[in-house]
Design a protein that fits this description.
Elements lengths: L7 H14 L3 H4 L3 H6 L1 E4 L2 E4 L7 H13 L2 H10 L25 E2 L2 E2 L1 H19 L13 E5 L6 H9 L9 E5 L4 H8 L7 E6 L6 H18 L3 H7 E5 L2 H6 L7 E3 L16 H7 L1 H20 L6 H15 L4 E6 L7 H13 L17 E4 L10 H6 L6 E6 L11 H24 L16 E6 L4 H22 L7 H17 L10 H13 L4
Parallel strand pairs: 5-6, 5-7, 7-8, 8-9, 10-11, 10-12, 12-13
Antiparallel strand pairs: 1-2, 2-13, 3-4
This protein binds 6-O-phosphono-beta-D-fructofuranose.
6-O-phosphono-beta-D-fructofuranose binds next to loops.
């Protein structure tokens, strides 16, 4: 296979790049034809790519690159369960999680759709039992607090969705999320809770992640201390979500308390599975089903639309254009919805754990960049934090703006006219920021006139509801797939993180005063010594 950067399609893009560098967004976005050709309406979503440093020719050349990479076939392969995670020899079937019950997708000769349906029913049934107060704690009290203990994909997705769908949550059940090994995370959450009415969801695909298992063990001690050590007690207060049921059983979870996920769904792609059990309990199975419908709508578009009109493909290609040709290292994501405050952090893992690779899918070192670093914040708060850098910093950081035409439903705490008035001001800020980034201040002459010409895309949805959230989730999942497929990397493994995990044990043993056999570097040795000198003796 020809080296990616040696292909004629890549070379043509490199050549084209010099002509685009000279273009001014200030002038380009006055062309209504351009705006029309770079805007796309998909059901209740509107996408405006006209403020990117692209022309019709750029998209044409990127499309050539995509066709040369066999992107259409790769998308089909993803949906059909081909091995796309080459290092772990697995498919990545997050799309199967929201397929219709009549679909068929085989993994090792077995149709997995019935497994997915059964797991979904098990989770829905459990969520209903909690919500209707049929599932009781060990002392006969109904559950009023649900605590998700998990980290990475077993935390960021469900946490983001729970926060995003706050107006759809059942009032009588509060949800908490504990992820950090720092005991303050455990403590700040548990200090509010009553053990008699608390249910813990131990959320770990591998059931081997030390942060999660440590927090789970501490939570078990907390329940045992309050309610007793009989295993029957723990069964009323702990359930597990995992692909490793044997390991969960070894921790005392009966099979009825284990909600399955599978190794053919990546952790950071697992938000539409039982990984979101806490969300399902909070918003109810019907709303969760609507979220899956939203994912499926985007899946269908991704699977069937031609490349030139395929939104996740376009977003992936623009990302590659910005990173690999224009040299923009970062990507900001700014949702103008307070309830989406955790969306950038969720995307950080989704995009950076997926695209942070320096070898191709066959393990060969590569000579090009892979994916931007993601950063972000919620509008309008981010305007008073990171936007100065976005407007005038010496690095150009493309922005994805996400806005909603209508406010989220309220619970009557403030008058409707206030809600609509403030919401409109919020949207005005969003549009004004993308405008300011693009045009700068043309009337100012001198060095500051260079401000402007900063690229962005805007996604406008009707409202932040379960369906729209599902569409956004699938949109970004597929964008990440496109980046990986085109850059020939494996978006579904994470060996770098595994290495970090494996070094912890030796350091932990040194900190505990049981010197490990590991010969640490001088810097680490000095940190261990300093720690011992400063540590209070408990
Ligand atoms: O951060 C590494 C990682 O393996 C993520 O990919 C994963 O989402 C997270 O740890 C948690 O893993 P698990 O769900 O197996 O506990």
């Amino acid at each position: 296979m020809v080296d990616l950067t040696e292909s004629s399609q890549w070379k043509e893009l490199e050549e084209h790049c010099s002509s685009v560098r000279g273009l001014s967004l200030r002038e380009l976005i006055n062309d209504s034809k351009r705006v029309e050709s770079l805007s796309f309406e998909r059901d209740d979503l509107f996408f405006d790519f006209s403020k990117q440093h692209i022309t019709d020719e750029t998209l044409h050349l990127l499309n050539d690159l995509a066709s040369h990479a066999g992107l259409k076939e790769k998308i089909t392969g993803l949906f059909e369960g081909e091995i796309v995670n080459q290092s772990e020899k697995r498919p990545a079937l997050h799309t199967a999680l929201r397929m219709s019950p009549t679909a068929q997708v085989n993994v090792n000769g077995q149709d997995v759709i019935p497994l997915i349906q059964a797991a979904h029913e098990m989770a829905s049934d459990f969520a209903l039992r909690i919500r209707t107060k049929q599932w009781l704690g060990a002392t006969g009290q109904p559950i009023s607090s649900v605590v998700n203990i998990g980290i990475g994909g077993s935390h960021l997705g469900p946490y983001m969705a729970f926060k995003a769908l706050r107006p759809y949550c059942e009032n009588s059940i509060d949800c908490h999320f504990i992820s950090n090994l720092d005991p303050s995370d455990l403590e700040t959450n548990l200090s509010y809770l009553n053990p008699e009415t608390t249910l813990f969801i131990i959320n770990s695909k591998s059931f081997s992640t030390s942060e999660t298992l440590t927090n789970a063990e501490s939570a078990m001690e907390w329940i045992e201390k309050a309610l007793g050590t009989d295993p029957q007690i723990l069964r009323k207060h702990f359930v597990a979500v995992t692909a490793n049921s044997e390991k969960a059983e070894s921790y005392g979870f009966p099979s009825d308390n284990i909600f399955p996920i599978w190794d053919w769904v990546g952790g950071r792609f697992s938000i539409s599975s039982a990984t979101s059990l806490a969300v399902m309990i909070a918003i109810g199975p019907d709303n969760f089903k609507t979220l899956l419908d939203g994912c499926r709508k985007m899946d269908q578009h991704f699977e069937t639309a031609i490349l030139t009109e395929n939104i996740p493909v376009l977003m992936g290609l623009i990302s590659i254009w910005n990173r690999n040709f224009l040299g923009y290292h970062n990507q900001a994501v700014i949702p103008y919805a307070n309830d989406l405050a955790s969306f950038p952090a969720y995307l950080e893992q989704l995009e950076m754990e997926s695209s942070g690779k320096n070898v191709d899918s066959e393990g060969n070192l590569i000579n090009y960049e892979t994916g931007p670093a993601i950063l972000g914040g919620v509008g309008t708060n981010a305007q008073h934090a990171i936007f100065q850098f976005l407007h005038q910093g010496t690095s150009v950081i493309p922005v994805d703006f996400i806005a909603f035409a209508n406010p989220s439903p309220t619970r009557g705490g403030i008058e409707n006219d206030v809600v609509y008035r403030q919401h409109e001001a919020l949207v005005a800020n969003c549009f004004a920021q993308s405008q300011a980034l693009a045009i700068g201040k043309p009337e100012i002459k001198g060095p500051s006139s260079s401000v402007g010409n900063r690229p962005s895309s805007t996604i406008l949805a009707d409202r932040l509801d379960p369906f729209a959230l599902g569409q956004l989730i699938a949109l970004y999942e597929h964008k990440v797939f496109i980046i990986g497929a085109l850059l020939r990397i494996n978006s579904f493994d994470q060996w770098g993180v595994e290495l970090g995990k494996s070094l912890v044990d030796n350091v932990a043993s040194d900190l505990a005063g049981v010197p490990s056999s590991a010969a640490h570097d001088s810097s680490t040795r000095s940190l261990v010594t300093q720690y011992h000198m400063r540590k209070d003796v408990p």
